[in-house]
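Exercise: predict the fold of this chain.
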Amino acid sequence: MYQQKQYTLVLESRNIFFEYCRTIGPEDFINQNSSFGRGGSIRNLLVHIANIYEYWIANTSLKKNPVYSRYEAYENIEDVINLFDAVDQFMNEFFELTGKTDNKIEFERNGIKTSAEPLTLFTHVITHEYHHKGQILSLSRHLGYTPVDTDIIR
Protein backbone atom coordinates (compact mmCIF):
# COMPACT_ATOMS: atom_id res chain seq x y z
CA MET A 1 0.00 0.00 0.00
CA TYR A 2 2.76 2.45 0.91
CA GLN A 3 4.69 1.45 -2.19
CA GLN A 4 1.76 2.50 -4.39
CA LYS A 5 1.52 5.82 -2.57
CA GLN A 6 5.24 6.33 -3.00
CA TYR A 7 5.02 5.48 -6.69
CA THR A 8 2.27 8.10 -7.06
CA LEU A 9 4.79 10.65 -5.78
CA VAL A 10 7.36 9.33 -8.26
CA LEU A 11 4.80 9.75 -11.07
CA GLU A 12 4.04 13.35 -10.04
CA SER A 13 7.74 14.18 -10.08
CA ARG A 14 8.22 12.29 -13.36
CA ASN A 15 5.40 14.23 -15.02
CA ILE A 16 7.05 17.54 -14.08
CA PHE A 17 10.32 16.17 -15.41
CA PHE A 18 8.70 15.08 -18.69
CA GLU A 19 7.13 18.53 -19.11
CA TYR A 20 10.61 19.98 -18.76
CA CYS A 21 11.97 17.48 -21.30
CA ARG A 22 9.36 18.75 -23.78
CA THR A 23 11.28 22.07 -23.79
CA ILE A 24 14.51 20.40 -24.90
CA GLY A 25 15.23 20.65 -28.60
CA PRO A 26 15.20 17.45 -30.69
CA GLU A 27 18.92 17.64 -31.43
CA ASP A 28 19.78 18.14 -27.77
CA PHE A 29 17.46 15.29 -26.75
CA ILE A 30 19.55 12.75 -28.68
CA ASN A 31 22.93 14.51 -28.40
CA GLN A 32 25.40 12.05 -26.88
CA ASN A 33 27.89 13.27 -24.30
CA SER A 34 30.48 10.71 -23.28
CA SER A 35 30.77 12.31 -19.81
CA PHE A 36 27.35 10.86 -18.99
CA GLY A 37 27.13 7.06 -18.95
CA ARG A 38 24.65 4.72 -20.64
CA GLY A 39 24.81 6.32 -24.03
CA GLY A 40 25.17 9.84 -22.72
CA SER A 41 22.07 11.42 -24.21
CA ILE A 42 18.86 12.43 -22.49
CA ARG A 43 16.96 9.95 -24.64
CA ASN A 44 19.38 7.10 -23.96
CA LEU A 45 19.38 7.69 -20.22
CA LEU A 46 15.57 7.72 -20.16
CA VAL A 47 15.39 4.47 -22.12
CA HIS A 48 17.99 2.97 -19.80
CA ILE A 49 15.78 3.88 -16.81
CA ALA A 50 12.86 2.10 -18.47
CA ASN A 51 15.08 -0.92 -19.20
CA ILE A 52 15.81 -1.29 -15.50
CA TYR A 53 12.09 -1.28 -14.71
CA GLU A 54 11.60 -3.83 -17.49
CA TYR A 55 14.33 -6.05 -16.06
CA TRP A 56 13.60 -5.91 -12.33
CA ILE A 57 9.84 -5.51 -12.37
CA ALA A 58 8.59 -7.12 -15.60
CA ASN A 59 11.21 -9.84 -15.98
CA THR A 60 12.46 -10.63 -12.49
CA SER A 61 9.36 -9.93 -10.39
CA LEU A 62 6.49 -10.68 -12.77
CA LYS A 63 8.32 -13.41 -14.73
CA LYS A 64 7.40 -11.80 -18.05
CA ASN A 65 9.71 -11.74 -21.03
CA PRO A 66 9.73 -8.09 -22.02
CA VAL A 67 11.37 -6.91 -25.20
CA TYR A 68 13.94 -4.49 -23.88
CA SER A 69 13.67 -1.06 -25.37
CA ARG A 70 16.39 0.08 -27.76
CA TYR A 71 17.55 3.68 -27.68
CA GLU A 72 17.07 4.22 -31.40
CA ALA A 73 13.39 3.25 -31.25
CA TYR A 74 12.60 6.46 -29.35
CA GLU A 75 13.03 9.64 -31.34
CA ASN A 76 11.44 12.18 -29.02
CA ILE A 77 10.07 12.72 -25.53
CA GLU A 78 6.55 11.68 -26.57
CA ASP A 79 7.89 8.27 -27.59
CA VAL A 80 9.64 7.97 -24.22
CA ILE A 81 6.48 8.99 -22.34
CA ASN A 82 4.65 6.16 -24.12
CA LEU A 83 7.41 3.79 -23.03
CA PHE A 84 6.90 4.85 -19.42
CA ASP A 85 3.16 4.24 -19.78
CA ALA A 86 4.12 0.58 -20.32
CA VAL A 87 6.43 0.77 -17.27
CA ASP A 88 3.47 2.02 -15.22
CA GLN A 89 1.42 -0.99 -16.33
CA PHE A 90 4.17 -3.31 -15.10
CA MET A 91 4.29 -1.40 -11.84
CA ASN A 92 0.53 -1.75 -11.33
CA GLU A 93 0.83 -5.51 -11.84
CA PHE A 94 3.76 -5.57 -9.44
CA PHE A 95 1.74 -3.76 -6.74
CA GLU A 96 -1.17 -6.12 -7.24
CA LEU A 97 1.10 -9.15 -6.92
CA THR A 98 3.19 -7.92 -4.00
CA GLY A 99 0.32 -6.28 -2.14
CA LYS A 100 -0.89 -9.76 -1.22
CA THR A 101 2.38 -11.06 0.19
CA ASP A 102 5.82 -10.06 1.39
CA ASN A 103 7.33 -13.26 0.03
CA LYS A 104 10.77 -12.84 -1.41
CA ILE A 105 11.13 -12.88 -5.16
CA GLU A 106 13.65 -15.42 -6.39
CA PHE A 107 15.97 -14.71 -9.29
CA GLU A 108 19.42 -15.47 -10.60
CA ARG A 109 22.09 -12.80 -10.73
CA ASN A 110 25.58 -13.37 -12.09
CA GLY A 111 24.89 -17.10 -12.08
CA ILE A 112 23.92 -17.17 -8.41
CA LYS A 113 20.40 -17.92 -7.20
CA THR A 114 19.19 -15.34 -4.73
CA SER A 115 16.06 -13.51 -3.64
CA ALA A 116 14.88 -10.10 -2.50
CA GLU A 117 11.81 -8.67 -0.86
CA PRO A 118 9.47 -6.72 -3.14
CA LEU A 119 10.31 -3.54 -1.22
CA THR A 120 13.99 -4.01 -2.07
CA LEU A 121 13.28 -4.35 -5.80
CA PHE A 122 10.89 -1.40 -5.72
CA THR A 123 13.43 0.76 -3.91
CA HIS A 124 16.13 -0.24 -6.38
CA VAL A 125 14.18 0.83 -9.48
CA ILE A 126 13.02 4.16 -8.10
CA THR A 127 16.41 5.16 -6.69
CA HIS A 128 17.96 4.17 -10.01
CA GLU A 129 15.46 6.43 -11.79
CA TYR A 130 16.31 9.40 -9.56
CA HIS A 131 20.04 8.84 -9.98
CA HIS A 132 19.77 9.07 -13.76
CA LYS A 133 17.19 11.84 -13.61
CA GLY A 134 19.82 13.90 -11.80
CA GLN A 135 22.32 13.11 -14.55
CA ILE A 136 19.79 14.19 -17.18
CA LEU A 137 19.14 17.49 -15.41
CA SER A 138 22.89 18.08 -15.17
CA LEU A 139 23.36 17.15 -18.83
CA SER A 140 20.58 19.54 -19.83
CA ARG A 141 22.31 22.33 -17.90
CA HIS A 142 25.50 21.60 -19.91
CA LEU A 143 23.37 21.99 -23.03
CA GLY A 144 22.25 25.46 -21.94
CA TYR A 145 18.87 24.71 -20.34
CA THR A 146 17.73 25.71 -16.87
CA PRO A 147 16.46 22.60 -15.08
CA VAL A 148 13.22 22.66 -13.12
CA ASP A 149 12.72 21.42 -9.57
CA THR A 150 11.64 17.79 -9.80
CA ASP A 151 11.88 17.04 -6.09
CA ILE A 152 8.90 15.30 -4.57
CA ILE A 153 8.65 18.09 -2.00
CA ARG A 154 8.85 21.42 -3.80
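Check your answer against the key: The mean pLDDT is 94.
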